[in-house]
Amino acid sequence: AENTFRCVTCTAPVNIAVIKYWGKRDEKLILPTNSSLSVTLGQDELRAKTSVAVSKDYTQDRMWLNGKEQSVNTPRIQNVLKETRKRLSDSQNETELLQNVHIVSENNFPTAAGLASSAAGYACLVYSLSQLYGVKGEISDIARLLLSCRQGSGSACRSIYGGFVAWNMGELEDGSDSYAVQVAPEAHWPEMRTLILVVNDQKKDVGSTEGMQTTIETSDLMKHRVTIMDRRMEAMTEAIKKRDFPTFGKLTMQDSNQLHAVCLDTYPPIFYMTDVSRQVIRLVHAINDIYEEVKVAYTFDAGPNACLYLLEEDVPRVLSLVQHFFPPSQDKGEKFVTGLSVPEVPV
Ligand code: PMV
Predict the structure, then answer these.
(1) Are strands 100-107 and 62-65 parallel, antiparallel or unpaired?
(2) Can you tell me the ipTM of this complex?
(3) What is the rounded distance in angstroms from the CA atom of residue 114 to the CA atom of residue 200?
(4) Residue nearest ligand 1's atom 3 by CA
(5) Among residues 68, 108, 224, 252, which is most buried (max CB within 10 A)?
(6) Digit-coded pLDDT (tens) for 221-264
(7) Residue nearest to atom 10 of ligand 1 (CA)
(8) Whether residue 21 has its Cβ less than 6 Å from ligand 1
């Protein structure tokens, strides 16, 4: 008899950009105004986990996120399903193609708090579906093609690979040369560590999709930013290839600062960082001043939470300083970092 039920479970880790994607040149195809580069965290740390199942007994497509049923009738979900099913049409599982799918997804970290939850979630969904349906070939562009939707996550394409991953913006109008490539595997720089400081786990006010579009429309500083990004990408790629932490760290901080500067230059301005975020920045610079070298770097996405990059040998002293200045809040329990467990930083 035909299979009546098939299920695939995948996990996709969060990726945190060191050269940020901010701005689309084509909103429908989700084509960026600049290339970006990120580090994918380990599978045991911040990650999305998604199970997808097909059965001829399912009467409709359904989806649950963190235990709550969500509508599948959003443009981005529909696009993912459409794209993967389209690709399936030339493989052999025709019967499964026609079946409905159930999607169950959960994150082990705060969702939509500027910790790249949608990137991991969509990467995971696309990957699970591709495994379920047996899609072959380039899949990172499906994640990017979460098109025509205001909240689509372009950066999801970078979570498809581990290690150091670039999303090259490409030049073509149809976006066929805009996809993620691995710059170096995780094993290339095994001493690299990240500490995630959860300043606030509330949902952010301005979503990245809306925020970046307003920046493109209103910020003059953004016009300057796009002209320097190719050079920045080259310098960052080289720093990673050479495992040159001081250069890697400085570029990471400069790029984060510029992202938040273009947010401030957006009209009306967008504030993602809080006073606590800025205190973390001061602390990082104070640590680097003491060592007269960049030992630790911060980066902030569309939210107040800090991601610190550092080398394994520096984790104990940086961590003790962070914990000294930002004592863990008693009531909220522990939060996470790669390879370590770090108490949450109170607001
Ligand atoms: O992919 P989106 O639409 O969730 O936007 C991500 C934007 C940043 O996280 C701020 C930067 C990045 O490159 O990840």
Answers:
(1) parallel
(2) 0.99
(3) 10
(4) 153
(5) 252
(6) 999 999 999 999 999 999 999 999 999 999 999 999 999 999 99
(7) 301
(8) yes
